[in-house]
Prior knowledge:
Elements: H1 3-13, E1 17-21, H2 38-50, E2 56-59, H3 62-65, H4 68-85, E3 90-97, H5 101-114, E4 119-122, H6 128-135, E5 141-147, H7 153-156, E6 160-161, E7 164-165, H8 166-174, E8 183-187, H9 195-201, E9 207-209, H10 219-226, E10 233-237, H11 239-242, H12 250-272
Parallel strand pairs: 1-2, 1-10, 2-3, 3-4, 4-5, 5-8, 8-9, 9-10
Antiparallel strand pairs: 6-7
Helix pairs in contact: 2-4, 2-12, 5-6
Amino acid sequence: MTTQQLHEQILQKKSFLCVGLDPDLTKIPQHLLETEDPIFEFSKAIIDATHDLTVGYKPNTAFFEAYGIKGWMSLQKTINYINENYPDIFTIADAKRGDIGNTSSMYAKAFFEDLNFDSVTVAPYMGKDSVEPFLAFENKHTIMLALTSNEGAFDFQTLNTNGKELYKQVLETSKTWKNSENLMYVVGATKAEYFTEIRKIVPDSFLLVPGIGAQGGSLSEVCKYGMNDKVGLLVNSARAIIYASKGTDFAEKAREEALKVQKEMEEIIGSKFQV
C-alpha cells in the first residue's frame, strides 16, 4: 500500500484509527480458550467487528511469539485473514527489530515477503545499516522509533547532545538514508507537546501514534500539533478497544469503543478537510 492509498482510505473511512492486536491468553474471554486457536479466534473477532472503522491493524508480535510456534502460526493466520478479507487495511508488524545489515535483511524478508505485512516497526539505535535493508522493499514501509510514549523514553531520547535533543538528530539523520521516503515514525501520544518540533523535521511523513486510551494521550492534542495536509497520522489504540469486555460480547464492545474514537476522528477530519 502506498501512502497515497493510505491517505485515500483515511478520507473514505473518515478515520485514521489503527487497532493494536495484543492477544493475551490471561485477558481474552474465557470461552475462547476452548477453541483450537484462541489467539486467532480473538483477533479475527476483533477484526471482523472493527474493520470498517479502522484503516490499520498492528499486531504486536511479542503477544504471538510468547506462545512459541503456535503463536507464530496464529500470527500468520491473522495477517493472512486481513490480507484476504480486508485488503484495503494497512498492516503493521509491531516487532521493533533492528540489527546489523544481513540480520535486518532477514527480518525484513520475514515480515515483508513471508508474512506480507505492509510495514514493520524498527529501532534505529544501530544506525543506517540496520534500517536501510527494510527500506529497500518497494511499497513497504519502515516505521522507526522516534519519540516513544513510555516512561523510560526520557532516559535517552530527549538527552541534549551538541545543543540538540537526540530524537531530533535521529529524525534528521534518517532523512539522509537510501529510500528514506519509505520511512514513517513512532511518536507517542503522551508527548503531544513535541509534535510541533517533529513536524518541522518530517513535515510530510506519516506518524504512528500509540498512547491514546489506556495510556492517557489526548487525540485532540495529537491532531492539533501533529496533523499535516495529508492527515499524516495513524493513531493506535489497543487495550481500550480489544479488552473493552471479557464476556461473550467482547467483539461488540470493542466495536463500540472503536466507534467512539472514529466519530471523534470524523469530526476532526471534517473540520480540516473537504470530505
